[in-house]
């Protein structure tokens, strides 16, 4: 039988590392399974609470996915990681916040909420895309041909510059998003209730991802992006302006980060100059989880990370008797990321897509 032959071949070839990884899988599955079963036997939450966990997981997962898309597009074309991308997201959040505050002072936020939201979207996209383009010109282009750690160090330095520039310009105190009529409030249906802002965030994120997919797959610049991602030298020989494609990719990733900043502010209401670091790490983790370098993987990784963060503490940490399970939700997310990378180094979709491309 094929399965028996595969098992015999594995037993013959297995090393100490293979046995250790197998034992690690068994231990992880046993711990998660024990917590999950114990939680089912002694439930602490009802259907409405589980629905709230699911809705919040989809909401924060959509934000992670938008941030991850910027990482994965730049990596797909340049094979470099832009560690300043989280701070581009942070500036987008500040731009959206100040736009909404200005609309509120002008008296149009309550009277014309759709127009105010549109203004905030345009401003955050313009600011984030502009900073992303500036970062590409200053921190990436001079080191594009090199193979050293210079690009990585350059983007880390740019990240610190952006963070403390924001602190100097906007202050160290948190900024609050104004209340938006039509977005704040509760929506009830089928016996469940969910904050209206979460529905708006999920819908806006999905619409943004659809537009991004259409740009990449149905436009000339999208075709050029895919060609440059495959082989920059061959794309140049075919007459494609590689520099322009790279600049457009940075601008597009920055625009997505700006929209993510706006959506994050609408959900959590508070933003700070240091938020880009933590959210940037989450977005990068989502990109790696899904298979960095491909767009569907970034989307899947973002939603997977958000759902695990939201559902994990209630799903199995409560059953294990952890005193403060929700203080460990970040640890759950990063543990899942490490486990995926151990057992599937290319990410959830990376291996399949690379095999199909080959």
Arithmetic mean pLDDT: 83
Structural class: mainly alpha
What ranges have pLDDT less than 50 throughout 5 or more consecutive residues? 351-358
**What is the 3D shape?**
globular
Q: Please count the helical segments.
A: 14
Proportion of strand residues:
under 5%
Quick one: biggest sheet? 2 strands, antiparallel
Strand order of the largest sheet: 1-4
Radius of gyration: 22 Å
The count of domains is 1
- The counted number of beta strands is 4
In the CATH classification, which architecture applies?
Orthogonal Bundle
Order of helices and strands: HHHHHHEEEHHHHEHHHH
Q: Helicity range of the residues?
A: over 70%
Quaternary structure state of the chains depicted:
single chain
CATH topology (level 3) name = ABC transporter involved in vitamin B12 uptake, BtuC
Through-space gap between termini:
29 Å
Task: Name the CATH class.
Answer: Mainly Alpha
Describe the structure.
The chain is globular, with a radius of gyration of 22 Å. The protein has helices at 2-13, 16-41, 47-78, 85-106, 113-140, 150-170, 196-218, 220-230, 232-237, 242-268, 275-290, 295-317, 329-343, 350-357, and strands at residues 175-176, 186-189, 192-195, 270-271. It has one domain: ABC transporter involved in vitamin B12 uptake, BtuC, CATH 1.10.3470. The two termini are 29 Å apart. Helix 3 runs parallel beside helix 7, helix 8 packs across helix 10 (242-268) and helix 12 packs across helix 13 (329-343). Residues 351-358 have low confidence and may be disordered. It has a two-stranded antiparallel sheet with strand order 1-4. The protein is mainly alpha-helical and 358 residues long. The protein is built from 14 helices and 4 strands. The longest helix is centred in the first third of the chain and has 32 residues, at 47-78.
